[in-house]
Amino acid sequence: MQISLDSFDLKILQVLQEDARITMLDLAAQVGLSATPCARRVKRLEDEGLIDRYVTLLNAERLGLGLTVFVNVRLNSQVPKSFETFEAAIQRMPEVVGCYLLAGQYDYLVQVRVANVEAYRDLIRERLIAIEGVAETQSSIVLEQTKHTTALPVPII
What is the C-alpha to C-alpha distance for residues 151 and 20, in angstroms, rounded to an integer? Predict the structure, then answer.
């Protein structure tokens, strides 16, 4: 269900994606509202589910997680139990930072952040291919990240 948004709402969403720690006074000034109506709009956007949550983005390189790998996974069976088993196992792996059910040649695309190739090798050998129902994996190691954002494109009216 799409929610009706005006230009103030869209600007609020855009600014909060850039800096979720911005003060309400600064946010209001940037979007052209006074603080109280701006705060009401933010609360409404939260209540309506447009603002899902506020997070802190950590620097993976500084944490020693310099290797990103995308893994295509094919299951050996297309029954609900296979999907449930795989998804439950993936939820328990902190190295997995993204997992997407796909249409096409593979069943899942899994994004992994680890320290190095050795750590990735251990994850694949000891945990990922050990998940019941995993038939095949194909790994793509990221050499350089040319763009990464958590911001969604906010339409401009």
Answer: 11
